[in-house]
């Protein structure tokens, strides 16, 4: 999903440092695995090891992993408490020992895992700042993050995805479930969740297989290709078109609209929004897909609610594209992990979760606003202040994941927060898992000697993504 405006810097982000070799996947003598959190970026000077430990747990099942109970919280973690007394409108100040993280800092942009990891080990709460937006509280530890994401005193507000430069008739359709709380959200979630259940995702897999095969057929066999533009980006939108029943003749326009929606503003965005909304209205009026028929006829969604769901799918489409590119780069960088998957293909579903934990593209959750003063692990969060979760830090919390900075495709990593947690746990998580598994297995089966020629990261403070992934196989 596009990074909320709260996390977009107004000034250009610094460019990446040049040079540097890709890291070895083995630790040198005397190093401690996990001692210094680091990202999977090939540009980083330090990198986690991918040496495999002896296998100590049974093989995961080949079916989709069960989603965590979105309503549960860690029993060891006390929930934040309300602050007694009248509301103080003065913005709170961080305690002296609360880390401050500047999102415009080149070190944060090029290696967020180290910065967030250090903050996590100082305490569960840090403070984000940057040009163009006010300070935001961030939770860095896994248990505390899950507790906040299930706490009704922190709410997503209307207007999170309501840009100004769109036609007025589109606005009612742009309020998605992600902007709802309480019973309105629970009602829509209850009605739509069955359509995105794991069994439906598995039943849809043959159609994803065909989409992936078509895209791979178009790739040159022995020539360099940018896997971002040729494979990772078009795949999610093509799957969305399959789900929604978009006619073949209209799909090129939907791909263009999807690319412009990701930008979040500008002339292309202003054109893309009505293109998607009006196209979705036509699809809902004459449903030609199992998904839309189920939502309108069986689940009982209104036309407006169904169009809004299609819009939400388009908004979310960039997330699997970014993650797929990260996962491909990780498996090429650490061929020992790819060797495990080729020798033990039943590990692929488990590997998707481990890759999501280790190199998922979303660094931060969509920020919530405190609906009242809350005492948050020693910090007073005032009503109206924003709180987010550092997915990058929580997914590498050593309290939950042993040797967290090491990629291990045999790891049971189902508890990661890559799909968020709580009432707003990703509705399409099961479809995303299947899509990524199909894409990775097919890609590495088709191109047995795939190698990276260039992997350049985008300077984005909210998303760990590649701008270029040029490969040859």
UniProtKB/TrEMBL annotation:
Pfam families cross-referenced by the UniProt entry: p450
Pathway: Antibiotic biosynthesis; vancomycin biosynthesis
Highest taxon above the source species: Bacteria
Chain positions covered by the region annotation Disordered: 1-100
Polar residues bias locations: 26-50
Keywords: Heme, Iron, Metal-binding, Monooxygenase, Oxidoreductase
GO molecular function, one term: oxidoreductase activity, acting on paired donors, with incorporation or reduction of molecular oxygen
Family statement drawn from the similarity comment of this UniProt entry: Belongs to the cytochrome P450 family.
Task performed by this protein: Involved in the coupling of aromatic side chains of the heptapeptide of vancomycin.
Protein name per the record: Cytochrome P450
Origin species: Amycolatopsis panacis
